[in-house]
Design brief:
The protein has 160 residues and is mainly β. It contains three helices and twelve strands; from the N terminus they run αβββββαβαββββββ. The relative contact order is 0.23.
Length: 160
């Protein structure tokens, strides 16, 4: 019995995810769009994200000692699309905020997390990168950018 990888990917797309951009790099900063961001621990504060081993940015991110994760709002859809593509990893023309660790945050991100690399794990065709959060900021303005069944969308804020 063969495993249908395409059907598996489509089934995974049934789970709506938020969208983030991770930035890293020592001399020239680069970015990559991810939907694999999640929290790991509050004590110590740890988060993770995953990168495909076939990515042209794999070496940059797996060797980086620090990275910044920016949680995207709907205003960032074009940036997300651009940084999701192979070869479109430069940050030129994107509004950025400086950070203490170096890799910039995206301006007007819903939140961002400055991280020191805590660990990296081999996981099939991806690597799992765990970061210890050193600093973070949160902005309440804007709706989150969501990815569902291969398309971008918005999630309206629910107020209690």
């Amino acid at each position: 019995m063969s495993f249908d990888t395409r059907a598996f990917r489509q089934a995974l797309g049934s789970f709506p995810t938020g969208v983030a951009v991770v930035t890293a790099g020592e001399v020239k900063h680069v970015g990559i769009t991810v939907n694999s961001f999640t929290s790991v621990s509050l004590e110590p504060p740890l988060v993770l994200w995953c990168i495909d081993k076939k990515s042209d940015r794999f070496e940059i991110f797996t060797r980086a000692q620090s990275f910044t994760i920016s949680i995207l709002g709907t205003a960032h859809e074009a940036v997300s699309s651009r940084l999701a593509k192979q070869g479109s990893h430069h940050l030129d023309g994107i509004q950025l905020l400086p950070t203490v660790l170096g890799p910039p945050a995206l301006a007007e991100a819903l939140a961002y997390f400055e991280c020191e690399k805590e660990a990296a794990y081999d996981a099939g065709d991806h690597s799992i990168l765990v970061g210890k959060v050193i600093r973070f900021a949160r902005h309440d303005a804007g709706a989150p950018l969501v990815f569902f069944q291969g398309h971008y969308g918005a999630l309206s804020q629910v107020k209690a």
